[in-house]
Design goal:
Elements (H helix, E strand, L loop, with lengths): L2 H13 L10 H20 L8 E6 L4 E8 L2 E9 L21 E5 L4 E2 L7 E3 L5 H5 L8 E3 L8 E2 L2 H16 L5 E6 L5 H6 L6 H17 L4 E5 L2 E5 L3
Helix pairs in contact: 2-4
Length: about 240
């Protein structure tokens, strides 16, 4: 083979991107075999396609986890799941072992799936994120998991985490690179912020509100960055 062809081919081989690694286990695979056909039926009944990108929102009050599925350019609400348990009440996590569950804007990538969790199945929400790190917040391994017991995590019943986990897994399997998870104390309406205005965390909640408002208006997750130790939001284009 001519030398110039070898020179051309070798960089192309190294440039080829490997298939995304998604952790798996027999337990998780068996659960998908059971759960995914039902979810596919539910998606079809809701006018949605399977394997589309998903988005998660969590509200501590009234204790709801929402799964949204992309439909066209926007996301459409697919299912609400009751949170079985979370700890620490309203307000975000700032210290290791403070018992609180984080609030803010987080991201799940494929390697954050735990298909062999002690708590049935688990998704690491990605705490501490860039905002948390910029402020020196500590702690790790904050999950959405099963088993209905929480010390800093968002715990679901096992049947519910099976559906949530499977939806995220299938989205990754079909090409989604990361799943955004927006976590709020409650719906960040002006009325609710006024209602909780005596809480120490109200200024933080007001800081989260522009990202919340973007999704409410567009049904597309906001583009989130951290500037000068504060969240910054933009509308996705």
């Amino acid at each position: 083979m001519p030398k110039f062809l070898i020179t051309l081919i070798i960089p192309l081989l190294f440039a080829a991107s490997p298939k995304t690694y998604i952790p798996d286990s027999k337990r998780a695979a068996d659960i998908r075999t059971k759960v995914w056909p039902k979810l596919q039926g539910d998606l079809k009944a809701a006018g949605l396609k399977d394997g589309q990108p998903v988005f998660i929102r969590i509200f501590k009050e009234p204790g709801i986890l929402e799964i949204w599925v992309k439909s066209g350019k926007q996301f459409k609400l697919f299912k609400n799941y009751l949170i079985c348990a979370y700890s620490g009440g309203l307000g975000t996590k700032t210290k290791d072992r403070d018992g609180k569950c984080p609030e803010g804007y987080y991201t799940i990538t494929p390697t954050q799936l735990n298909p062999v969790s002690t708590y049935h199945l688990a998704l690491n929400v990605g705490y501490p994120n860039a905002f948390d790190q910029s402020r020196g917040y500590t702690g790790n391994a904050i999950m959405i998991h099963g088993y209905c017991a929480s010390i800093g995590c968002y715990a679901m019943t096992d049947p519910m985490i099976e559906e949530i986990y499977t939806m995220v897994y299938e989205a990754f399997l079909h090409g989604q690179k990361s799943v955004e998870v927006n976590i709020f104390p409650f719906k960040l309406t002006n009325a609710n912020i006024d209602k909780y205005s005596n809480y120490h965390y109200v200024s933080f909640w007001q800081h989260l509100k522009p990202g919340y408002d973007i999704f409410e208006k567009t049904h597309v997750p906001p583009v989130v960055s951290v500037v000068n130790k504060n969240y910054s939001f933009a509308i996705a284009r």
